[in-house]
Amino acid sequence: xxxxxxxxxxAADDALVEQTARVLFEAFQAVTDWLTDxxxxxxxxxxxxxxxxxxxxxxxxxxxVLGWIGGQHEYARVWELHPLAVSPPQQRRGVGQALVAxxxxxxxxxxxxxxxxxxxxxxxxxxxxxxxxxxxxxxxEGEPLKHLLGIRNLRGHPxxxxxxCGFAIVGVVPDANGRGEPDILMARRVGAGIxxxxxxxx
Length: 202
Ligand SMILES: CC(C)(COP(=O)(O)OP(=O)(O)OC[C@H]1O[C@@H](n2cnc3c(N)ncnc32)[C@H](O)[C@@H]1OP(=O)(O)O)[C@@H](O)C(=O)NCCC(=O)NCCS
Prior knowledge:
Elements: E1 5-8, H1 14-29, H2 38-47, E2 53-59, E3 65-75, E4 78-86, H3 95-109, E5 114-120, H4 144-149, H5 159-164, E6 168-173, E7 183-189
Parallel strand pairs: 4-5
Antiparallel strand pairs: 1-2, 2-3, 3-4, 5-7, 6-7
Helix pairs in contact: 1-2
Bound molecules: coenzyme A.
Coenzyme A (COA) is lined by residues 27-28, 31, 84-86, 91-97, 119, 156, 158, 160-161, 164.
Protein backbone atom coordinates (compact mmCIF):
# COMPACT_ATOMS: atom_id res chain seq x y z
CA UNK A 1 0.00 0.00 0.00
CA UNK A 2 1.34 3.43 -0.90
CA UNK A 3 1.51 6.12 1.75
CA UNK A 4 -1.74 7.34 3.33
CA UNK A 5 -2.16 11.07 4.00
CA UNK A 6 -4.92 12.06 6.42
CA UNK A 7 -6.10 15.67 6.67
CA UNK A 8 -9.17 17.70 7.59
CA UNK A 9 -11.57 17.71 4.67
CA UNK A 10 -11.36 21.20 3.15
CA ALA A 11 -14.92 22.53 2.74
CA ALA A 12 -13.72 24.97 0.07
CA ASP A 13 -12.33 22.19 -2.15
CA ASP A 14 -15.45 21.26 -4.16
CA ALA A 15 -13.70 18.54 -6.19
CA LEU A 16 -12.41 16.87 -3.02
CA VAL A 17 -15.81 17.05 -1.33
CA GLU A 18 -17.38 15.49 -4.45
CA GLN A 19 -14.79 12.70 -4.57
CA THR A 20 -15.38 12.03 -0.87
CA ALA A 21 -19.14 11.77 -1.42
CA ARG A 22 -18.52 9.26 -4.23
CA VAL A 23 -16.33 7.09 -2.00
CA LEU A 24 -18.98 7.22 0.74
CA PHE A 25 -21.73 6.26 -1.68
CA GLU A 26 -19.78 3.40 -3.28
CA ALA A 27 -18.63 1.97 0.06
CA PHE A 28 -22.15 1.76 1.47
CA GLN A 29 -24.00 0.89 -1.74
CA ALA A 30 -22.92 -2.75 -1.61
CA VAL A 31 -23.87 -3.36 2.00
CA THR A 32 -26.88 -1.21 2.90
CA ASP A 33 -29.49 1.04 1.36
CA TRP A 34 -28.74 3.77 3.93
CA LEU A 35 -27.70 6.21 1.16
CA THR A 36 -30.32 6.13 -1.54
CA ASP A 37 -28.30 8.13 -4.07
CA UNK A 38 -25.19 10.25 -4.53
CA UNK A 39 -27.09 13.36 -3.39
CA UNK A 40 -27.71 11.72 0.00
CA UNK A 41 -23.96 11.03 0.23
CA UNK A 42 -23.17 14.68 -0.66
CA UNK A 43 -25.55 15.86 2.09
CA UNK A 44 -23.84 13.56 4.60
CA UNK A 45 -20.39 14.92 3.70
CA UNK A 46 -21.59 18.54 3.80
CA UNK A 47 -23.13 17.93 7.22
CA UNK A 48 -19.75 16.73 8.50
CA UNK A 49 -18.29 20.13 7.64
CA UNK A 50 -20.50 22.00 10.08
CA UNK A 51 -18.77 23.81 12.96
CA UNK A 52 -17.62 21.61 15.85
CA UNK A 53 -17.50 18.44 13.78
CA UNK A 54 -14.50 16.37 12.75
CA UNK A 55 -14.20 15.33 9.11
CA UNK A 56 -10.98 13.62 8.03
CA UNK A 57 -10.09 12.41 4.56
CA UNK A 58 -7.43 9.83 3.61
CA UNK A 59 -5.68 10.26 0.26
CA UNK A 60 -2.85 8.59 -1.60
CA UNK A 61 0.25 10.46 -2.84
CA UNK A 62 -1.59 11.41 -6.04
CA UNK A 63 -4.43 12.98 -4.04
CA UNK A 64 -7.06 10.32 -4.79
CA VAL A 65 -9.52 9.81 -1.94
CA LEU A 66 -9.08 6.43 -0.22
CA GLY A 67 -11.51 6.89 2.64
CA TRP A 68 -13.26 9.29 4.97
CA ILE A 69 -14.30 9.44 8.62
CA GLY A 70 -16.54 11.79 10.59
CA GLY A 71 -16.93 12.46 14.30
CA GLN A 72 -18.91 14.68 16.61
CA HIS A 73 -19.15 15.51 20.27
CA GLU A 74 -22.15 13.80 21.82
CA TYR A 75 -22.23 14.63 25.55
CA ALA A 76 -19.82 14.96 28.50
CA ARG A 77 -16.57 13.17 27.45
CA VAL A 78 -18.24 11.11 24.73
CA TRP A 79 -17.73 11.48 20.98
CA GLU A 80 -19.47 9.59 18.23
CA LEU A 81 -17.67 8.10 15.24
CA HIS A 82 -19.93 8.45 12.18
CA PRO A 83 -19.59 7.66 9.37
CA LEU A 84 -16.57 5.70 8.12
CA ALA A 85 -16.09 4.63 4.52
CA VAL A 86 -13.18 3.21 2.54
CA SER A 87 -13.27 3.05 -1.24
CA PRO A 88 -14.12 -0.60 -2.11
CA PRO A 89 -10.95 -1.28 -4.19
CA GLN A 90 -8.85 0.11 -1.33
CA GLN A 91 -10.39 -1.96 1.47
CA ARG A 92 -8.34 -4.36 3.64
CA ARG A 93 -5.18 -2.29 3.18
CA GLY A 94 -5.18 -0.51 6.53
CA VAL A 95 -6.95 2.69 5.43
CA GLY A 96 -9.90 2.23 7.81
CA GLN A 97 -7.64 1.53 10.76
CA ALA A 98 -5.51 4.60 9.95
CA LEU A 99 -8.62 6.82 9.78
CA VAL A 100 -9.91 5.53 13.13
CA ALA A 101 -6.49 6.15 14.74
CA UNK A 102 -6.43 9.71 13.34
CA UNK A 103 -9.94 10.41 14.66
CA UNK A 104 -9.02 8.98 18.08
CA UNK A 105 -6.02 11.31 18.31
CA UNK A 106 -8.19 14.32 17.47
CA UNK A 107 -10.90 13.34 19.96
CA UNK A 108 -8.30 12.78 22.69
CA UNK A 109 -6.74 16.19 21.98
CA UNK A 110 -10.19 17.73 22.43
CA UNK A 111 -10.59 16.10 25.86
CA UNK A 112 -12.71 13.13 24.80
CA UNK A 113 -12.41 9.93 26.83
CA UNK A 114 -14.84 7.66 25.01
CA UNK A 115 -15.31 7.20 21.29
CA UNK A 116 -18.49 5.32 20.52
CA UNK A 117 -20.40 4.15 17.48
CA UNK A 118 -23.37 2.14 16.35
CA UNK A 119 -22.90 -0.41 13.60
CA UNK A 120 -26.14 -1.69 12.13
CA UNK A 121 -26.94 -5.23 11.16
CA UNK A 122 -29.63 -4.59 8.60
CA UNK A 123 -30.67 -6.59 5.55
CA UNK A 124 -28.03 -6.42 2.81
CA UNK A 125 -29.76 -5.06 -0.33
CA UNK A 126 -31.02 -7.84 -2.57
CA UNK A 127 -30.32 -10.64 -0.06
CA UNK A 128 -33.03 -10.29 2.61
CA UNK A 129 -30.49 -11.29 5.22
CA UNK A 130 -28.05 -9.61 7.56
CA UNK A 131 -24.44 -10.29 8.44
CA UNK A 132 -24.30 -11.38 12.07
CA UNK A 133 -25.97 -14.03 14.21
CA UNK A 134 -28.15 -11.26 15.75
CA UNK A 135 -30.01 -10.63 12.50
CA UNK A 136 -33.58 -11.92 12.43
CA UNK A 137 -33.50 -12.81 16.13
CA UNK A 138 -35.94 -11.50 18.75
CA UNK A 139 -33.31 -10.10 21.09
CA UNK A 140 -35.83 -9.52 23.86
CA GLU A 141 -36.34 -13.26 24.19
CA GLY A 142 -33.93 -14.33 26.94
CA GLU A 143 -32.47 -10.78 27.21
CA PRO A 144 -30.60 -8.79 24.52
CA LEU A 145 -27.21 -9.03 26.27
CA LYS A 146 -27.35 -12.83 26.32
CA HIS A 147 -27.65 -12.86 22.52
CA LEU A 148 -24.93 -10.26 22.26
CA LEU A 149 -22.44 -12.40 24.19
CA GLY A 150 -22.79 -15.13 21.57
CA ILE A 151 -22.46 -12.85 18.52
CA ARG A 152 -20.89 -14.43 15.43
CA ASN A 153 -19.84 -12.75 12.21
CA LEU A 154 -21.51 -14.57 9.32
CA ARG A 155 -20.79 -12.30 6.33
CA GLY A 156 -18.02 -9.77 6.94
CA HIS A 157 -19.92 -7.42 9.26
CA PRO A 158 -17.69 -4.47 10.26
CA UNK A 159 -18.02 -5.06 14.05
CA UNK A 160 -14.91 -7.26 13.72
CA UNK A 161 -13.07 -4.42 12.03
CA UNK A 162 -13.86 -2.24 15.06
CA UNK A 163 -12.72 -5.02 17.43
CA UNK A 164 -9.43 -5.03 15.49
CA CYS A 165 -9.28 -1.24 16.11
CA GLY A 166 -9.58 -1.71 19.88
CA PHE A 167 -13.32 -1.14 20.33
CA ALA A 168 -15.45 -3.32 22.61
CA ILE A 169 -19.08 -4.27 22.11
CA VAL A 170 -20.96 -2.42 24.85
CA GLY A 171 -24.59 -2.95 23.94
CA VAL A 172 -27.24 -3.47 21.33
CA VAL A 173 -30.39 -1.65 20.24
CA PRO A 174 -32.91 -4.27 19.13
CA ASP A 175 -35.01 -3.61 16.02
CA ALA A 176 -33.19 -0.32 15.28
CA ASN A 177 -33.71 -0.74 11.53
CA GLY A 178 -36.80 -2.98 11.56
CA ARG A 179 -37.82 -6.17 13.37
CA GLY A 180 -34.71 -8.31 13.83
CA GLU A 181 -32.36 -5.63 12.46
CA PRO A 182 -30.32 -4.36 15.42
CA ASP A 183 -27.73 -1.65 15.93
CA ILE A 184 -24.59 -2.99 17.64
CA LEU A 185 -23.08 -0.45 20.05
CA MET A 186 -19.30 -0.24 20.42
CA ALA A 187 -16.90 2.01 22.31
CA ARG A 188 -13.24 2.47 23.12
CA ARG A 189 -11.20 4.62 25.46
CA VAL A 190 -9.18 7.42 23.91
CA GLY A 191 -6.60 9.62 25.60
CA ALA A 192 -6.10 9.63 29.34
CA GLY A 193 -8.18 12.61 30.42
CA ILE A 194 -7.79 15.03 33.34
CA UNK A 195 -8.20 12.32 35.99
CA UNK A 196 -5.22 10.37 34.74
CA UNK A 197 -3.57 8.34 37.48
CA UNK A 198 0.23 8.88 37.38
CA UNK A 199 0.70 5.13 37.98
CA UNK A 200 -0.67 4.53 34.46
CA UNK A 201 -4.08 3.32 35.59
CA UNK A 202 -6.97 5.50 34.46
C1 LIG B 1 -15.44 -1.34 7.43
C2 LIG B 1 -14.37 -0.60 6.62
C3 LIG B 1 -14.39 0.87 7.00
C4 LIG B 1 -13.01 -1.21 6.97
O1 LIG B 1 -11.99 -0.46 6.30
P1 LIG B 1 -10.68 -1.17 5.71
O2 LIG B 1 -9.74 -0.12 5.24
O3 LIG B 1 -11.09 -2.20 4.73
O4 LIG B 1 -10.11 -1.90 7.02
P2 LIG B 1 -8.58 -2.20 7.41
O5 LIG B 1 -7.84 -2.66 6.21
O6 LIG B 1 -8.01 -1.03 8.15
O7 LIG B 1 -8.83 -3.44 8.39
C5 LIG B 1 -8.11 -3.66 9.58
C6 LIG B 1 -8.49 -5.01 10.14
O8 LIG B 1 -9.89 -5.04 10.47
C7 LIG B 1 -10.44 -6.34 10.18
N1 LIG B 1 -11.51 -6.20 9.17
C8 LIG B 1 -11.62 -5.24 8.21
N2 LIG B 1 -12.79 -5.38 7.53
C9 LIG B 1 -13.40 -6.45 8.07
C10 LIG B 1 -14.64 -7.08 7.81
N3 LIG B 1 -15.49 -6.64 6.87
N4 LIG B 1 -14.97 -8.18 8.54
C11 LIG B 1 -14.13 -8.63 9.50
N5 LIG B 1 -12.94 -8.06 9.79
C12 LIG B 1 -12.60 -6.98 9.11
C13 LIG B 1 -9.30 -7.19 9.71
O9 LIG B 1 -8.74 -7.83 10.85
C14 LIG B 1 -8.33 -6.16 9.16
O10 LIG B 1 -7.01 -6.61 9.17
P3 LIG B 1 -6.49 -7.66 8.02
O11 LIG B 1 -7.00 -7.15 6.70
O12 LIG B 1 -5.02 -7.57 8.18
O13 LIG B 1 -7.09 -8.96 8.41
C15 LIG B 1 -14.60 -0.77 5.08
O14 LIG B 1 -14.69 -2.13 4.79
C16 LIG B 1 -15.85 -0.07 4.55
O15 LIG B 1 -15.81 1.11 4.19
N6 LIG B 1 -16.98 -0.82 4.49
C17 LIG B 1 -18.23 -0.28 3.94
C18 LIG B 1 -18.83 0.79 4.81
C19 LIG B 1 -18.96 0.36 6.27
O16 LIG B 1 -19.40 -0.74 6.57
N7 LIG B 1 -18.60 1.29 7.19
C20 LIG B 1 -18.72 1.05 8.61
C21 LIG B 1 -20.13 1.20 9.02
S1 LIG B 1 -20.32 1.16 10.78
